[in-house]
Amino acid sequence: TGVKNSDGFSVFPNPANDKINIQFYETGKYYLQICNYLGMEIYKQESDMNRLTLDMSSWMKGVYFVKVTENKKIIYRKIIIQ
């Protein structure tokens, strides 16, 4: 399952076990950051693709925050790795 939001992108499945998909609703250049619950950056990537699949199988279980920046717009999502 995942939540489709009208403001840019969705993350699914959430909660996840080993992989997540990030689907962007519009074409553009995105800067993606994922931080743990302490705010430490775990992952970052620039992309102009509409969909990304990330392997999180080596990550610790817990809560993470996805931050996507496009132009000057910043959007956050919370994800859970089980």
Architecture overview:
- There is one protein chain.
- The protein is mainly beta.
- 0% of the residues lie in helices and 57% in strands.
- The protein is built from no helices and seven strands.
- The strands form two sheets. A four-stranded antiparallel sheet has the order 4-3-6-7, with no helix packed on it.
- Strand 3 and strand 4 form a beta hairpin.
- The protein is globular.
- The relative contact order is 0.30.
Write the layout of secondary structure elements.
Layout: E1 9-12, E2 19-24, E3 30-36, E4 41-47, E5 51-55, E6 62-70, E7 73-81
Antiparallel strand pairs: 1-2, 2-5, 3-4, 3-6, 6-7
The amount of helix comes to under 10%
What is the mean pLDDT?
89
Radius of gyration: 12 Å
Shape label: globular
Number of strands: 7
Helix/sheet category = mainly beta
What proportion strand?
over 45%
Report how far apart the termini are. 14 Å
Runs with pLDDT <50, length 5+?
none
Q: What's the helix-strand series?
A: EEEEEEE
- Summarize the biggest pleated sheet: 4 strands, antiparallel
List keywords for this structure.
57% strand, 0% helix, three-stranded antiparallel sheet, 82 residues, four-stranded antiparallel sheet, single chain, mainly beta
